[in-house]
Structure formats: structure tokens, C-alpha cells
């Protein structure tokens, strides 16, 4: 994705945990307001990309820029503010089990604002309404289905009207109907709140229904990217195997690979 004013930008980012390289000279841009998926094999560095965007880890080389700012130049206070303006929905979206639904959603509002209690109650009602759960304030997490719990976690994630949402495997463990509900809520909320969102997911079919753009990551690099239509139309064997979920194909599951995936497959770097 080439954009004139990117909201998120990686410039030649390399990242290693200790001495183990994870991301290599990674460059990409995401425009403001987009809902973007990052897909790729297990251990390819997708969650690490989210952690870099959140400023939880720093690259050894290159820049991670959000809204025009290089995160590595931010002070502690600025990084804190950056994170406060982000919403997270992670795998299984853990709720506080000893707090009611309403108190779960109110939690970030009480932590990060000085708003009066009545206004917080109204905001909780609005956020729960946005995920179709108005009236569920008094329920405890143990009384919720998995799909409902994920929606409460989503309401909590958007409580502070984030400008940036990070989703890490938001569909894991959901039945197909709940998965569809969450996916379309993510899309609807992104449009309604004008948020920029990055979603790490393995669910190709559902993601292609809702996202604006997809990056495919393998071995620390983006090896393909495009809009859902471009991805569906691609005849790259690697993408076809990924999209069709075929057990046999060019993707090697053995670890470690002796040579790079692109080289093995004769793929051009970055095509959809
Ligand atoms: N804190 C850490 N310290 C050391 N190594 C780590 C750490 N976190 C992740 N790794 C390793 O870095 C690699 C990339 O991890 P990451 O979680 O970014 O991959 P991923 O693409 O999100 O994988 P998955 O789809 O399996 O969740 C993995 O091999 C993982 O074992």
C-alpha cells in the first residue's frame, strides 16, 4: 500500500529477540482509517509487528512511525499517551472475571479519565449498545457465551475511542456464527469510529470479507500484499495454498528452512 500520508509506517525495520532475527528490513505503510490484516505462518513475526506498533518493543534498526512520529524518539510520557489512544483485542480477549460486564467496560474509563460516574455509565451503555449487548451490564463474565465475552472485550477495547486498534487473533475459539458477528462488528466499528486497525489473523475467508488490504508475512518479510480482490485473483501457488488451506503445496512446514521461502518458491518479492 503506497499512501501519501501513512498513519502507520515501517521503514527498513529489523527486529531480533536477543540474537534471533525475527523481522528483516521490513517496510510498509498503512493509510489512516484502513482495516488491514497481517497473515502468515506460525512464528513469522506477526504479533511482533503489533508489539512494535504498540511501542512495547523497539526495532534494532529502522523506524516504526505512527501518525508521523518515530516511536523510538518518544518520551515515556508520550509512549504512554500513544498506548492510551490505542485499543487492543487479543486472543481470547480476557475479561476481569470478578468484575461485571459493565465494570469491565468502565475499567479503562475509570483508569484513564476523570469523568463523572454518571457519564461513565452512559458511555458504558453506548459501548455495549455498539456491540449489541445493551442491557447486559450486570452479568458476570461466567454467565456469558464465548461470543458474548468477545463482544464485551471489544466494547472495552473501544471505550476510550481509540484512534488505532490492534487485533491479535480476534476470532480464535469462536463458533462460526459468533466469528461472523465479531468480524462484522470489527468492520462496522472501524468505519463508524474512523479508526485505523491492524489485525493479525489466520482466518483468511472471513478476513477477506472485511479488510481493506492484506499483508502476507513469511520469515520476517512481506512476501505478498494486496486488496482482497487482488488476493483472491492471485495465482501465486503460495497464496493459493494459504487461501485454500490446502495441506499440500509450496509452503514448507519443516523448521528451520535451509533457504528463504521466496527463493524456494521462485516468488517475486511483494506481489499479490
Ligand atoms: N518475548 C520473546 N522472546 C523471545 N522470542 C520470542 C518472544 N516472543 C516471540 N518470540 C519468537 O519470535 C518468533 C515470532 O513470534 P511472533 O509471536 O511474532 O510470531 P507470529 O507470527 O505472531 O506467530 P503465531 O501465528 O504462531 O502467533 C517466534 O518464533 C517466537 O517464538
From TrEMBL:
Pfam families per the UniProt record, alphabetical: ABC_tran
GO molecular function: ATP binding
Entry keyword annotation includes DNA-binding: no
Name of the protein in question: ABC transporter ATP-binding protein
Keywords, comma-separated and alphabetical: ATP-binding, Cell membrane, Membrane, Nucleotide-binding, Transport
PROSITE patterns attached to this UniProt entry: ABC_TRANSPORTER_1, ABC_TRANSPORTER_2
UniProt xrefs under InterPro entries: AAA+_ATPase (IPR003593), ABC_transporter-like_ATP-bd (IPR003439), ABC_transporter-like_CS (IPR017871), P-loop_NTPase (IPR027417)
UniProt xrefs under CDD domains: ABC_Org_Solvent_Resistant
Keyword Metal-binding: no
Residues annotated as domain ABC transporter: 8-244
